[in-house]
Specification:
mainly beta, Jelly Rolls, 8-stranded antiparallel beta sheet, 5-stranded mixed beta sheet, 3 helices
Length: 633
């Protein structure tokens, strides 16, 4: 799925010299945020609210419905219904002004008096994907609202409309978009996101109310569907079923998006059903089941071994591994929540917005206020770029939680500019087109050598493409000491690449500097794959340190953020911390490919070149985009 991040440098004007405050802001481009886990990576937002709550910036009437918000590229997307006409609505995030609206006839009727759409739009680059409660599926131009292609679940897949309408939000992974159509032979469907062509359709399960979510299982990308009758895992590439865990509930209401940690999945349902932890490393097996966490509509969030969520009308903290309750409160009714840092952002079922510590030891609200009227305010909030968005049926409102501006006097500013950890702004490393400037192509095993055959790395349409012929490094002419870099990358089934860190102008970056792996497991033949150490797969520091977790997405865009300060190296992949190491602690020598000793990590340079490697086989070139770096001073 496309994810946008930016760093806002807030310059405070005054007579004194002003210092910049670094704020990390994130878009919220789909249901439950960038990774569908309800977690925002945004930093620097304000948690010290006044008694009346954060300042409301704007509100807008968007029609009745229960859709939440997607926020991307300075725009807010949601859905609503007015007089039996559905609309997908795009608003300006700063002002709330309506930018466009796509409308179509759609019944809003509900057996319990909760009319309108349920789906939250999914934004992927220049496209928006939506589903109505009757199964109208649209792929829209994100800038204009123009229909690019569409499907009808009832007509195209013989889908049966669930009692309370289709509710699952489309999932985009790589070049595919996934959804539950609920038809015979078409329970789950994957389409080409660009053309709408059906790639596969599988299964006979009725549609649940939950949204699908993707994860890694044994080196393969799998989509988890929480259907009307249970949890089903399907291969991303062809929809083949890889596991099934039956989960029968009253009225077939399985609404909460599964929570996935490694190969364990937490599922939960209301109507006194409860929750269960399921191990899906092989056949699906129950780890535990109880009634401590009964998610009627909204899913939990996970942090450090604890689930936080709504057990019917109670906000509760539960141990992930055992299901044991830590604490609970009835303060918010049947609400919803997301999480940023160590704070739960809780939205009660009558419009109260609150911050609660994500702490299993005790319940503690640190801020809260009634911010909007209404009842049954069940759509979860969204945090994006210094604003919290909430919805109360037909009203959508934005609240200011942007970080404070800070001004320093001249002496303090000078100290900050020269002290440890200060920085300059991010700089793009590659121009939009052509051969990279300020970079040279070198042999893969010794960067003092040029390749025997002329090899070309090239930027096309903003994407850096790996070399042809293979077996090279693209090496920076400039040396870097302490720095932070982030970039997106994608690699095919037989792909092998790496990011070289602080290596000298001669030698093998993997052994004379550091190499952060970017490798699809299928690069290795089937008979070799079980013996490959994790340090040689994606996220590993080559041959030395395995990643903390496997969050690599095969054949999809991945994102690395790498920070190096002296001996400290921190790596985040797809929003998850996978490496946090002190190189000075690693004193053992490492064997090179020829068996000779290479320096220990402690003895490797703290300043040097950076680069990208291309060793892929077949047609699986590495692709890299949105590369930017800032030096730390």
């Amino acid at each position: 799925m496309a994810k946008s991040s930016n760093y806002l440098s807030v310059l405070c004007a005054s007579a004194a010299v002003a210092a910049t405050v670094l704020i990390h802001a994130d878009d919220w481009p789909q249901w439950r945020g960038p990774n569908r886990d309800g977690i925002s990576k945004e930093l620097g937002w304000r948690a010290d609210w006044p008694a009346e709550g954060p300042k409301q910036l704007w509100n807008s009437n968007v029609g009745v419905g229960w859709s939440s918000m997607a926020v991307a590229g300075g725009r807010v997307y949601t859905m609503g219904n007015v007089e039996e006409t559905d609309s997908v609505i795009c608003l300006d995030a700063e002002s709330g002004e309506e930018l466009w609206k796509h409308s179509y006839p759609c019944s809003s009727k509900d057996p319990n008096g909760y009319p309108g759409p349920r789906c939250t739009p999914t934004v992927d680059g220049d496209r928006v994907f939506t589903v109505s409660r009757q199964g109208h599926f649209f792929c829209l131009d994100a800038k204009t609202g123009k229909v690019l292609w569409s499907k009808d679940f009832q007509k195209d897949f013989a889908g049966k409309v669930p009692t309370w309408g289709f509710s699952g939000s489309p999932l985009v992974e790589g070049n595919l978009v996934f959804f539950e159509a609920g038809g015979s032979g078409a329970s789950a469907v994957a389409c080409d996101k660009t053309t709408g062509k059906i790639v596969w359709k599988q299964g006979d399960d009725g549609a649940g109310y939950a949204s699908p979510i993707a994860f890694n299982r044994g080196g393969e990308r799998v989509i988890a569907f929480f259907s009307a009758t249970g949890l089903v895992g399907r291969k991303m590439k062809d929809g083949a079923e890889v596991f099934r865990f039956p989960w029968k509930t009253s009225y077939d209401v399985n609404s909460a998006t599964p929570i996935i940690v490694g190969n364990k999945i937490f599922i939960s349902s209301g109507y006194n059903t409860g929750g269960a932890l399921v191990d899906v490393s092989g056949e699906a097996k129950e780890v535990w089941r109880n009634k401590e966490m009964r998610n009627h509509m909204n899913a939990c969030v996970y942090k450090d071994g604890t689930l936080y969520g709504f057990d019917e009308n109670n906000l509760k903290a539960v141990d992930f591994e055992t299901g044991r309750k830590f604490w609970e409160t009835r303060a918010y009714g049947k609400g919803s929540l997301i999480m940023a840092g160590d704070k739960l952002i809780v939205f009660g079922d009558s419009g109260r917005l609150a911050l609660v510590e994500a702490n299993p030891n005790a319940y503690k609200e640190t801020a809260g206020a009634q911010v909007i009227g209404g009842k049954s305010t069940w759509a979860p909030p969204a945090l994006a770029n210094g604003r919290i968005y909430v919805r109360a049926n037909d009203k959508l409102a934005a609240f200011d939680v942007a970080g404070k501006k800070v001004a320093l006097n001249a002496g303090a500013a000078a100290k900050n500019d020269s002290g440890n950890g200060s920085s300059v702004d991010f700089q793009k490393l590659f121009q939009e087109e052509g051969a990279p400037k300020g970079w040279v192509v070198r042999a893969w095993n010794d960067v003092k050598d040029t390749p025997q055959e002329k090899s070309v790395w090239e930027v096309k349409d903003g994407v850096l493409h790996g070399s042809e012929p293979r077996g090279t490094w693209l090496v920076s002419e400039k040396e870097y000491g302490d720095f932070e870099i982030d970039f997106e990358w994608k690699i095919g089934p037989r792909g092998n690449s790496g990011f070289g860190i602080r290596f000298p102008s001669a030698g093998d970056p993997a052994f004379d500097g550091l190499e952060l792996q970017m490798c699809d497991p299928r690069y290795y033949p089937d008979d070799q794959r079980p013996q490959i150490p994790p340090s040689e797969l994606t996220g590993g520091i080559y041959r030395v340190i395995a990643p903390k977790k496997d969050v690599f997405k095969p054949e999809a865009w991945n994102k690395y953020t790498v920070r190096c300060e002296g001996p400290k190296v921190r790596v985040v992949l797809n929003g998850e911390l996978i490496q946090q190491v002190d190189l000075d602690q690693y004193t053992e020598k490492v064997k090179r490919h020829n068996g000779e000793d290479a320096p220990s990590l402690k003895d490797r340079p703290r300043k040097g070149r950076i680069g990208f490697q291309e060793l892929s086989r077949g047609g699986a070139h590495v692709e890299i985009r949105n590369v930017r770096i800032r030096e730390l001073r």
